[in-house]
Amino acid sequence: MRRAARTLTVVCCLFFFLVVWLPVSAAMRIVVQRVKSASVRVDGQTISSVGPGIMALVGLHENDTEVDAEYCCKRLLGAKLWANDNGGQWRHGVKQKGFEVLCVSQFTLYGTLSKKKNQPDYKLAMKSVPAEALYNRFLELLRDTYSHDKIYDGQFGAMMDVDLVNDGPVTIVIDSEQPPNNEASNPT
């Protein structure tokens, strides 16, 4: 009886820890790379190319909404990844520089590996039909906020060959999940 009570206590404590203390990632995720140039090919044909600017791998979590897309749009276009004209590092964003943005949809950003077989599992990624709609909405937000002729993308759902020349390299990750210190309430 004591052993069962001890086991139940341990299980309850473990469950509490998992539910309360471990963060559950439910955020739109963008891997941003500052590039000198980048391009996307599908079936051997180049469908988009930029340079210099940003190449953004865009992953959508199954629970993402337009609010996440709006947040990530502001953060992506506001990210200060370049020096200003006086040489001050990290002072200008893509809009201030007049550079281009290449977005590539990438559901694999929400991939995990199974513990036993090391096989990828993408159950946290948004399903294809709603993901395509939200991804297209994200592109629309970028174009409306910046410029239609500065935003490019790959082909949703296609096998793509992505080429890029890193500038730096500079790579950052933007997650739409609001941090606990409320930093996200005022994206700059």
TrEMBL record:
It catalyses: a D-aminoacyl-tRNA + H2O = a tRNA + a D-alpha-amino acid + H(+); glycyl-tRNA(Ala) + H2O = tRNA(Ala) + glycine + H(+). It is found in: Cytoplasm. Its EC number is 3.1.1.96. It is an enzyme of class 3 (hydrolase). It holds the Pfam family Tyr_Deacylase. Keywords: Cytoplasm, Hydrolase, RNA-binding, Signal, tRNA-binding. The keyword DNA-binding does not apply. GO terms for molecular function: D-tyrosyl-tRNA(Tyr) deacylase activity; tRNA binding. InterPro entries: Daa-tRNA_deacyls_DTD (IPR003732), DTD-like_sf (IPR023509). GO terms for cellular component: cytoplasm. Gene3D superfamilies: D-tyrosyl-tRNA(Tyr) deacylase. The keyword Kinase does not apply. It comes from the Eukaryota. Residues 1-27 form the signal peptide. Belongs to the DTD family. PANTHER family: D-AMINOACYL-TRNA DEACYLASE 1, D-TYROSYL-TRNA TYR DEACYLASE. This is D-aminoacyl-tRNA deacylase. The lineage of its organism: Eukaryota, Sar, Stramenopiles, Ochrophyta, Bacillariophyta.
